Amino acid sequence: MKAEASPKTDPLAQYRSRLTSGQVLKHFEAGRATNKVMTVTSDLASFVIKETGKQVRAFSAKRIPLSNVKSVKAGLGKDHQKKTILGGLKAAAEPTLSFCLRNFKDEDILCVECPSADAAASWVAALRMLLNVSKK
Predict the structure, then answer these.
(1) Which DSSP symbol is given to 42?
(2) Phi/psi-derived region of residue 123, left when phi > 0, alpha when psi is between -120 and 50, beta in every other case
């Protein structure tokens, strides 16, 4: 019989359901947003970004190993910016709803926007805790 994880022994207890069940978020690439499902694998080793819809191909999911992620940054990242007609950059997402995963070269590897500020804060807290626990 498997013992249930308690909040005292499992620092991810309050975040585990959000991480593994996932949520539809706006995934940004070069200033363009598409709705995708963000989740974490059941073994909490990788982030997965999947297409939404009925006819999703199995190989269309993007997997980012947790070992490739250095930090979670709240706010806008490089891919949240779109080019303007004059060659400048303009925010394509709301800063309070957005966050990015960054690699060890301090580059944004995943930029997303949540449907609400509460959801963004919850995702950022959950992902930061996951990174802290995985580095121990």
Answers:
(1) T
(2) alpha
